[in-house]
Amino acid sequence: MLVLSRKKNESIIINDDITIVVVEIRGDKVRLGVEAPKEVPVHRNEVYEAIRRNQQKPEGVDERVVHNDGSAAAE
Fold this sequence. Notes:
Layout: E1 11-14, E2 18-26, E3 29-35, H1 45-55
């Protein structure tokens, strides 16, 4: 794993077409902005894992809506 230090408004470039910018640092939270081509999916890890779980469900299982915060929608 590559570990980099960045300050607010500094960025990281990945593969010439993806830019990650430190937008804000507040306490123990860092807000990142991601600029990537539309064909490149960008998800937080917990959203990505929920998508993968839904793709691996057997046939006939109801799908649930998952919000950005990882919580499930009320049925």
